[in-house]
Amino acid sequence: MLKTDQDALVQATLAGDPQAFQTLIEPHAPGVYGLALQITRNPVEAEEVLQDAMLTAYSRLSTFRGASSFKTWLYRVATNAALMRLRKAKRAPESLPEDWEKPADPRPWTGDPEAWFAREEFRQILNQALDSLPEIYRTTFWLRDVEGLSNQEVAEIMGLTLPAVKSRILRARLHLRDQLAPYFEERLRDAS
Amino acid sequence: MHHDPGHDCSHLKEALADYLDGDLDTELCRELHAHLKDCHPCRVVVDSTRQTIRFFSQERPVQLPPEVQRRLQETLKTRILPPEEP
Ligand SMILES: [Zn+2]
Questions:
Q1: How many domains, in total, are found in chain A?
Q2: Which of A39, A139, A162, B82 is the most exposed place for a label (fewest CB within 10 A)?
Q3: Is A54's CB within 8 Å of B51's CB?
């Protein structure tokens, strides 16, 4: 959506046209749902977060200043809605050991990427790896590397400093690497 | 095995975040880049981490299940849209 279209839709919503709001959020709904799924890892809760987020976005739209993109702003609203839900459910935030230990003898992943993708359990392997990440790392990683947002945008959404975002993403990437390594190093052995 | 300060594995942790983001223009990243030429384990970590990122970045975007879409529209309609004329 062009920024000008977006601005016009924001203005129209604020002027009292609810249909404009539907048009404004429509392209972002799948992303918000995906984000909520990453935070909650539960489709029922993710749907509730999606609805909360959109209703909150509607009632707070006048606070959207256009300094960030609408998407970034909306994702921040959604993140807060999801985290509020986790807090209510009293799910304690988990963490990873601060320091990552470099593996003693890492072996290269030199199989054929096409063959990896073709493996039936490929998506399941990725999902299990994501599941093993504590929420704060998973969400940060997902926004950066799956959604493809910039470090700066992720910082705005998560309410973190840029260095904090970078270190969280690195920690997540290395953890996922470690989780995937046995599968893709194995491949090398299978092939030999 | 040589251990001059410019060529040890500590650069991996210090510079990897920027290195993976392609911000190669810092002293630390240049040192890491040079280190990778000589250090196989560090190179394996960098390559496999890049591969990890590639795997996830190729995930298909999340689709909104149709029933979730429908219930969202209903919620917006009842909570936001003005009631339709009878
Ligand atoms: Zn090294």
A1: 2
A2: B82
A3: no
